[in-house]
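Reproducibility note. Readers wishing to regenerate the assembly model reported in the main text can use the exact inputs given here. Chain order matters: entities are listed in the order in which they were concatenated for prediction.
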Amino acid sequence: MWTIAKREIGSYFKSPIAYVLIGLFVLLISIFFWPRLQASRGDFITILGDMGFFLIFIVPILTMRTLAEDRKNGTEVLLMTSPTSLYKIVVGKFIGAYTVFLVTTGISLIYPLIIIMMGGMFTIQLTGGYIGFLLLGAAFIAIGILASAVTENQIIAAIISFVALIVMWVADTLATTVGGIVGVILEWISLISRYQVFTKGILGLAEVVYLLSFTIVILFLTVRIIERRRWVQG
Amino acid sequence: MIEIINLTKTYGQVVAVNNISFTVKKGEIVGFLGPNGAGKSTTMNIITGYLPSTAGTVKVDGYDILTQPKEVKKRIGYLPEAPPLYRDMTVTEYLRFVSSLKGVPKGKQQGQMADIMELVGLTDHRKRLIDNLSKGYRQRVGLAQALVGNPEVLILDEPTVGLDPKQIIEIRRVIKALAQERTIILSSHILPEVSAICERVVIINNGVIAAEDTPSRLSKDINQFLKLTMIILGDQEKIVKTIKTIDGVNYIEASAKTGDNAYKYVVESDIDVREQVFYKLAKAGCPILESKPSTMTLEDIFINVVTQGTEVS
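Running the prediction on these inputs yields the following structure tokens for the assembly.
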């Protein structure tokens, strides 16, 4: 598991992907942060809400190669015929992508630091907000990895996860419009409504449990999908 | 060591492997022959646990691939048709990754990697990016990868494909060296290779086993008649007439002229007629300059078996 994670991390930082993503993320935050800084508003937590939205664009690029690339290059054979379990392979891939995400998040801490330097405070709310952001990232990355498991084409994997994340982003709004059973289901998969609890500065146990179990279930599904593909088409 | 029991694999309607069984004893080196699409790679993918079988099973060292895949995978080194390489890594980085993946203890990794690289001739290229290596060297990295963890069983799917003649000879030398303490299944469609390396041959066609034996015994089975190629000095017509009088000869063909008044002849017979041919020609005053039996090569056998198989089906 750690072997695979380590290789993934190395691979991210050897290719331009990690740097491009980090650069893109920081750029986006800066664009949103600058006006607030000028207006002397020290509420970085609202930016965390925007950061969640940026993830919709960042995560698909981050995760598109995880499993699809192995399938395309034939390295999947090496992983599957080694004495490791499929769970460890998938979790290893997840840890690899998540580490890049952690580095990116770490860099975004520069902005709260700027606020502190200018006399602001790193509040408990902001800590809670960051915890929420880390959990949201985990759930998103799990979805991206799932998308990468269903195809050997990286671009298609990216598009699938992008669409899935968009749907989850608007699920809440859709739910109220649609109503009925579909509305209930949409509300149920709405990651955003959970995330918004954090960005309001509340550290809700229910939301923590929800996002964590969401991640685990999606990763479990990923393993099942790969298993199924082995049996069906080989 | 390896038991393949009633193995069947279907992809939807297509039957790739149809109820095949064979066993490979410990220390044996078996050649797996077949035309493209015969089911070689599929069988190998099942043995190594990459694909599940539709029916039947594979046992390695007594462990069933379906119920104890981990135990089986620990014992197998696999070189698939396309070497599974991460091109963004150097040779050393890659082999270290494979070592960890296969659970080689940290302390042993360095030494084992050095040994393997020496064996397959990669030591001078160990710091190079796999992406920058030539096809032949990538194939070596693929072979090196299969050797990591010192597995008892090696499954090599077309190990010499795409290499130049010099590299082929070298890889063959490596495989022969490995064969001394390991059980090897090697697939190929290059026949001289199989007859050069393997003790036993399994020919597979359309998903079923068409023949299975040692290369030499396979040639005997098929070689029902004797075929001689001779160069004889003298008048062509006279020679043909003389040979035709011998009991058992059923075919004679005079072909190219090879010298002054000397021709090449092909004689086919049901029994050994060499002695008769000698005396008769000596009497006729036509000396034999050269005579050699043309036994069937593995190539002939292969074509024979495979076409027969197609006729039956």
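We highlight two features of this model. Chain B touches chain A at residues 9, 11-12, 42, 45, 48-52, 70, 73-74, 76, 78, 80, 82-89, 93, 97-98, 100-103, 145 (CB under 8 Å). Residues 224-293 of chain B form a domain with the Alpha-Beta Plaits fold (CATH 3.30.70.260).
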